[in-house]
Structures are given as C-alpha cells and as structure tokens.
Amino acid sequence: MEGFQLPQDHNDDSVPKVSIITVAFNSAATVRDTIESVFFQNYSSIEHIIIDGGSTDSTMKIIKSFYPNLAHVISESDKGIYDAMNKGLDIATGDVVCFLNSDDKYASDNVISNVVTRMQKHQLDALITDVGFFYPSAPEKIVRRYRSNRFTPERLAWGWMPAHPGLFLRKHVVDRVGRFKTDYKIAGDYEYIIRAFCGQNLKYQHLSEIVVKMQTGGASTAGLRAKIQLNKEVLRACRENGIKTNFLKILSKYPEKLLETIIK
Prior knowledge:
Elements (H helix, E strand, L loop, with lengths): L1 E4 L12 E7 L6 H9 L6 E7 L6 H6 L7 E4 L5 H11 L4 E4 L4 E3 L4 H11 L4 E10 L2 E9 L20 E4 H7 L10 H10 L6 E12 L7 H18 L6 H5 L2 H4 L7
Parallel strand pairs: 2-3, 2-5, 3-4, 7-10
Antiparallel strand pairs: 1-4, 5-9, 6-10, 7-8, 7-9
Helix pairs in contact: 6-7
C-alpha cells in the first residue's frame, strides 16, 4: 500500500469544503486531465482524494506529480470499484462529497463554486446536474447529454437515477447512507442513490448545466452484455430496498433515453 495525507491547513476553513473522490486503475491515458480539471477549479476549499487500485502502468507516476495539490492518495489492490469508492468515503471530511472518475473531467473551472453557491443559497441536501459524454478521439465534442432533471425519487422504480458523477451530497447524507454494497458490479451507485433519496425527503434541486464530461466506454455504457447485467442489478436494488418494479417497467426508460443523443 502506498499513501499519504496532507496537513489539514491545505484547505480554506472559511468556506464549505468539497471532497472530490477519484477512483483510478491503469488510467495513465486520462488521469492527468481529471486531476487538472480539479486543480484549476476557482474554489479555495477542495479535498481531492485519489484511490488507486494498484495500477501497473504509469498512473501513479502521473498522480505523484500532483502530490502537493492532493489531500489523500491511496494505492493498493481492492475488490472492485465500489470497494475503492468506500475507501474514499471513509476518509472524506468535506461538507459536500462527490465523485469524479479517472476518465472524466469537470466541464469548466467554476463547476465547484457554482455547485456550492447553489447548495448554500437554497440550503440543499443534494444537487443533481447533467453529464456530457464524449468520444476519446474527440474530447471537445459532446455526443450525448445525460439530463438529470428527469429524475425524481418516484422514478427509481423505472430505473431512473441522476448522473452519479454529477451528484453532490451533503456529508450528513453520506454519513446516513453509509457505504456502497461491494457485491454489485455496475449498479452499486444506483442502489446507493435509492438509499440516499427513497423515503428520505431530501431537499434537492437540478442544475441545468453539463458539469462533468464523461468518456464513453465505461462499465455501465459498454455494450449489450453490460446493459443486461446493469438492469438485473437495478431490479435487485429495487427489490432489496422495497421498491415495487419489474423488468418491463425498467426497460421502458430506453425510448426516452434515446433523446439524450439530441444535444441541447
């Protein structure tokens, strides 16, 4: 295991601290863009936590070049992405907690300041935002927009969720919900969101902006086999949390999701 922690005065205590958790594994091709998109945020109190799964490429070499700007780095083997995310949650100390994957990046330098301003102004427990997808060959062109405004807790039974990389939660919500279930392979974030929102009367809003640019080809977007496994796990997550649903109900969202390819 390799790890370190910066002194606590790394952040400005006069404003809410935001914990950004990045999970990485053999991400040498993309992790620099991810870290730089956090580094250039025009917000003074960010705790950037990186959990590396024991990468065998040059991922850690790149991460080390940013050490002075990172709050925590852990590099060790894990039991999958949700185990790694749990490690980040265990050490996060921010007033707001979010995830930014190692092949994603923030869409602008004022994402975090805009998020905190909205959450503070309206005393929100959660803020949901939009995510734009791009192809690795054309990172500046958004080819699909995940619109989180279609989410409501009632629509969880239909398989709808806010985009996880664009979800910002208060620490008291994170503490209540607890850890991700590590026996999920793809839909652990969906199951986590059920526990966060269902029956909890969270005060939340939707920010109608693309705040994260996400590279296509992740576990939840990679082909038919992944889609089948994803929906099986969505069905399981609903049943485990007392939400009545079925496969037809969950699959009915796909015609509407086709509209995501119409960029607005």
